[in-house]
Design brief:
This protein is of the alpha+beta class and 68 residues long. The chain is built from one helix and two strands. It has a two-stranded antiparallel sheet with strand order 1-2.
């Protein structure tokens, strides 16, 4: 009799893991699709890049097309 309880717990745990993994994958897909800067947003309208070097680091300064 004790074996059926363990089987049920195992199936419930496996189901919970599967649902959790599916939720994580769906969340990651949503974050990729709706997150970040795309080319249609103002934040990506870059016109000119000024590159400077600070020792071994490259620094890029962007001038925007936005009116100030």
């Amino acid at each position: 009799m004790g074996n059926t309880n363990r089987d049920r717990q195992y199936k419930d745990s496996a189901r919970l893991v599967a649902i959790s993994m599916l939720g994580i994958i769906i969340t990651m897909i949503i974050m990729v699709l709706f997150g970040g800067c795309t080319t249609t947003k103002k934040c990506c309208d870059k016109e000119h890049v000024i590159t400077e070097w600070d020792g071994d680091r490259q620094i890029n300064w962007y001038s925007s097309t936005e009116e100030k």
